[in-house]
Amino acid sequence: MPGCGRRDAVLLRAALLWRITIFLLSGVLCASPFGALAQEQHEDEIVANLAGGRAIVHVAKDVIVFAAIDQPVERNSIPPRVMDLDATHIGVLFGASEWRIPADPKPVRLDRNFQRVARADPRYQSAAGEGETDLETIGIAFLEKLRPLVAQLHHKLDFSADDPIFQIVIIGYAPNDYGPEVWVVEYRMEQEQVATRGDYWQTRVERPRFTQLYPPEKHAPRAIVESRYPPDSKGPTLAELIHGNDPHITHLGSGEPRFAKVLDNLRGGQAQKAAAVDSADFMRAALPLIAGGAPFVLGTMDERHGFEWMVPPEEPVEKVQEDKNRPPDAPTLRRTPKP
Questions:
Q1: Less CB within 10 Å around the terminal CB: N or C of the chain?
Q2: pTM, entire model
Q3: pLDDT recorded at residue 3
């Protein structure tokens, strides 16, 4: 876009940290790759419930169409949760977005009590390899919510340094007429042993890493983009099904001329030229085919009219704490009261 180059981003290198169970007193870590075994709970145990699944984003003409599919990674998994982050961005939360302590019946949810930070807040400045200032403020806000939870880990954990504990897919519109953007923000942990205290480890969350999914490089095809948690989940993406002429997807086009035109745009690498309403309806028709019976949410977002649900979540979206600079007509995930 005029006057704006592609933002710096790091390569997405992620593997699943399937489950975190932390005993505050005994320091036991339990991990199960399939969540098949029930975990014994103790009085002082803190448990991170993981959200797994897929976020799919189609940037069409004058609208962003996005979906989140719930694909549990364990028995007690929570769904991917959608929240508004600031006046022009929404986020889909994956991984350890909810923490529970048995002594407290109310879970610690990272999508709750979120305080927006003004875009130009001087406290946060992006460094090389990090997101732009507006995204960095969002990333730091979640970092500050994670720190006191992860800091309670004091025994050696068996995990790779590249395993993300928490992941956000940020969808929205960048400032200065940059246009639509989609980012994956990942949070990893690191540990250091305290030599004077025996088997005692200090654990902290690293600063978030940003990977830009959209827009692509200049002159590169523009297509539907997708992010998964865990990132190594098997199965083709929606874009791969479209380009591979999957019979179920192709059937949508053969039965509806509007969808045929959307598919032509997508296969031609011109997703941004697909009509807004037709693209949203196409996604609504395609999602049941790829979700395999799993629950999903679907919504649209544009700069002029904000956010609208097409398939809302089953649980209500909590109102975030407003900042004083938020325009009254800014996008929101709160449902409009019925007259």
A1: C
A2: 0.79
A3: 41
